[in-house]
Each structure stands twice: as C-alpha cells, then as structure tokens.
Design brief:
489 residues, four-stranded antiparallel beta sheet, 16% strand, globular
C-alpha cells in the first residue's frame, strides 16, 4: 500500500499537537484550570450577597485572587501560543519515541543535495573568504594524507567528507600572530591606531567539538575585558557546521565531554545522510549525497533559501524518519573512554593534586607545546612590541603562547613558579578539566584528542584521567571499614 503524504500544513499542525502532548502536557491541565478559576472568581464578585457587607481584608483577598488567576490564565495562553509557534516553525524538539520534553534532539528544517550545497557555498566566495578542510599530501607524516583548515578560492576544493583536521579552526578567530595596533611617538606625543580585521569569512566544515570550543572562546573574550579584535572577527564569521555520525578518530572522547552534539554556535549545521544506511557511521560523511539541515541563525536560513532554484527542500516523511535513524545510530556509535563522568572530574583532580602520576607521566614530556598548538580551546597569548630601525614607531602584536612551554610562567627576577614539567602538566590537565568549567560553565576540553595525536611522547589525557580516577577510588576504598569492602557488605 503506498504511503499517504500529507500536505506540509497538516504535517506542521501534527507537529504542534505532538509537541504539546509529549513535551508540554501540563498546558492541557493548567490552562483549563486557570481559566475556570478566573471565571469562578468573577462570578463570585457578581454575587455580592453578604449581610454585613465586605470588609477590607475580604476585598483585598478577592481582588488579589481574581487578578492572580487572570494573569495566570493570560500567561498560560502566551505560553501555549509560543509552543504552537515553535512547533509550527520547526524549532521544536520532540522525541518520536514518546518521551517527554526533548532537549537533546534537533528539529530537521530541510534537506539539501550535495551538488546544491556546493553551489550555495560557492555563492559565498564573492563576499567571504572561504575557509574549510582541505586534503594535503604529507609524505613524511603518518598517515600520509591529512586534512587542514585553510583558505580556498573555490568551493569544490573543500573536502566535506573529512574525518578530522590536524589543527582546529581556532586560527580563523584567534590568529597565531595578530597586529593589535600601530604606534608612533616620534612627534613628541604617543599615537596609537588600532588595527581591526573587516574581512567577511565563511568557515565551512566545523565539527560539533570545535563548535563547543568556539563557544568557549566567545565566552572568554566577551566577558570582563571584552576583546574587540576577537569580537570583530566573530561578528564577521559565518559558520557552516557538519555533524559527526561517529568518532572522527579512534582516540576521540567527545562523548565523555558531552561535545559530540551541538545545538548552537553555528549558522547552519549539516547532517550527512548516507546512501547505504547499513554502513558504519564514520562512512556516512564519505558517502553522503544529501544533507539534513538545521538552522542556527536567521543568516543561515536566508543563505540557503536565497537560491532561485530548489536548493533547499522541505523534508518528506521518509527523510524525517531517516534523520531519526541517523540520530539513533549516532547515540550508539560514540564509546565512553573515561572512567569518570565530566561532572566528576573536578573532584578527582582536586584530590590528585599531589599524585605521583604527574611526575611519572612528565618524565616523558619534552615541553614542546605541541598539545597547546593543536588544542581548539587554548587561548593564552603573549604581547610583543615590534619596532624597526626607528624605535619611536612600530606595532604591538599578539602571539600564541602555551602553558606547557618552559618559560610560560617565567616572571621578573628570573623566577619560574612552574619550572618543572610535572607542574606544567598538572596545570594544563586541571585547567582543561576543572578550572575553566568552574569559571565559565563550559568544558575546557572538548575531547577531540588532537593533543594525543600531536604528542611526540604519546602522552594521553585519557590515560592520565583514568589513572587518577583509579588512584582516588583505591584511596577511598582503603579508608572504608573492613566489612564494607566485602561483597554485599
């Protein structure tokens, strides 16, 4: 029997009903109840049959109850209208499996073919600098072929089927070397002219973990002392993300850090639909012919819907089911590699400040700073003044710095308060897994494992955290009473 395809308006109405019933069932109770109480209060005011009249207390009580019920009913109506609008526009998140409010599932806004997507990306080239993953042949590296984020002139140069890039797209927002301002003091007074970048940039092909890293950079550079250079670049950045159907690398632990899914930080997020749904999840990006589309901003919605042709189409019922199967398969594709959850890591690190794991692991560390270089959330920098032959004029530049370098904590007088590799290693791991989140509410590590792959000594942050967790568990079990350590005790 052929499947009946309902009109888009009927399907949208069904989504609204499904969103209210499964996501906000309290509206079905509170709205009629508040309306009935409001009518009951007005009816009581109309029947003023009291032999001794109304006192001040009764008046205040009656007026307060009536006004309260009226406001409550009005708020319920506004709430219902907002829910209906969200469901109708397709921004709602509803589990088809019948769960309650869906806060993790995205809502599919459309579907676009790969060819049409390339055309839409190409339309950004006249007004934006295109930056995205490009395949490069590195004969001396292993593997030989690797992906890098770099500027391209044409959209077909982008490798949208990439697995992981060696470096993160952080350099687009925070360049390794950046001129902050130019100064001149030759005319008996100091003049400083700030230098801002006005170039529009389109960053294409950003995985969820890097989207979370960008959110952290936004939080860091927009609070306290707002960094105008960073914020200017961020305002001129258009982000097109691509979801990961599975781990991009064997050592990735983004699920442990809760960064394998993203719901913000992008203008458009693409979900690759594979030709063969029986293939393994990592192959979905390579075999994708169609992409599910989720909008993050109005700019992303205007970009894909500005085409004269049918570039973006409304998802059919089959495509929505396909999207649900994609998300269900993704849930089981990411393994857990940490023994402790992300919320438990700060307590583990607090108890492990004097652990011997730091010293034992640091014996293999070269203090080369490769982990800082490839990390998408490292934002430490140094300030340097560069002058020419005339010392009265020059530029002030910001350059990347890294806490694993030997001279990072070197201060005036030659004192280095983190002169040992173990101290620097402990500082970096604790900062990534505890301190940054305690300050910003966002994880300082996104689980991309670039630091693991870049380390020449093969030091793994996963191994360190698991060793510390085992050490803490052993110490806690050693302090338990003897009967509590026995099975069933």
């Amino acid at each position: 029997m052929p499947r009946i395809r309902l009109p888009p308006a009927v399907r949208k109405l069904g989504r609204v009903v499904l969103l209210i019933v499964l996501g906000y069932p309290h509206l079905l109770i509170l709205l009629p109840l508040s309306s009935w109480l409001t009518v009951h209060a007005f009816r009581g005011w109309m029947n003023l049959e009291r032999p001794f009249g109304w006192g001040i207390a009764n008046l205040v009580r009656g007026i307060g109850f009536t006004v309260g019920m009226f406001v409550f009913a009005a708020l319920m109506l506004v709430y219902l209208a907002a829910v209906a609008y969200v469901g109708w526009k397709g921004h709602g998140r509803v589990y088809r499996r019948g769960s309650w409010a869906a806060v993790h599932r995205p809502w599919l806004h459309g579907v676009i073919s790969r060819d049409c997507l390339i055309e839409r990306i190409e339309s950004l080239a006249p007004t934006h600098a295109l930056v995205g993953p490009v395949l490069r042949d590195e004969p001396r590296s292993c593997p030989r072929k690797r992906f890098f984020y770099q500027t391209v002139s044409r959209a077909d140069e982008l490798a949208l089927d990439f697995d992981c890039c060696v470096y993160s797209p952080k350099a687009t927002l925070l360049p390794p070397r950046e001129t902050l301002f130019r100064f001149d003091s030759r005319n008996r007074h100091f003049e400083a002219v700030p230098v801002f970048s006005s170039e529009q940039t389109a960053l294409v092909g950003v995985h969820p973990c890097d989207l979370h890293a960008t959110r952290l950079l936004d939080e860091v550079f927009s609070h306290d002392q707002r960094d105008q250079h960073y914020l200017k670049r961020r305002a001129n950045l258009f982000v097109v993300g691509i979801d990961c159907p599975g781990p991009c690398a064997p050592d990735a632990f983004c699920r442990d850090m809760q960064t394998c899914d993203a719901n913000r930080g992008f203008d458009v997020l693409l979900y690759p639909f594979p030709v063969d749904e029986k293939a393994r999840p990592p192959a979905e990006c390579r075999d994708a012919k169609d992409y599910g589309v989720v909008f993050g901003t109005d700019a992303g919605r205007k970009w894909l819907r500005a085409s004269e042709g049918a570039a973006l189409r409304e998802p059919t019922f089959e495509e929505e089911c396909r999207f649900e199967r994609y998300l269900e398969r993704k849930d089981g594709a990411f393994p857990r590699r940490l023994q402790k959850t992300r919320a438990q890591l700060p307590a583990v690190l607090q108890r492990s400040y004097d652990s011997l794991v730091w010293k034992a692991t640091a014996q293999r560390c070269y203090s080369c700073g490769s982990c800082n270089l490839v990390c998408p959330t490292c934002y430490c920098f140094d300030i340097q003044d560069e002058t020419g032959l005339s010392p009265g004029c020059g530029v002030r530049e910001r350059t990347w710095d890294g806490c694993m370098l030997h001279d990072f904590a070197l201060v005036a007088g030659g004192h280095n308060f983190r002169g040992k590799a173990a101290q620097r290693l402990r500082h970096r791991i604790t900062r990534k897994s505890a301190w940054i989140e305690q300050r910003t509410g966002l994880s300082g590590c996104v689980g991309c494992a670039r630091c693991v792959r870049a380390c020449t000594a093969h030091i793994s942050i996963v191994d360190i955290l698991n060793q510390l967790a085992e050490e803490v568990d052993n110490v806690q079990s050693a302090h338990l009473p003897a009967d509590a350590q026995k099975p069933g005790g």
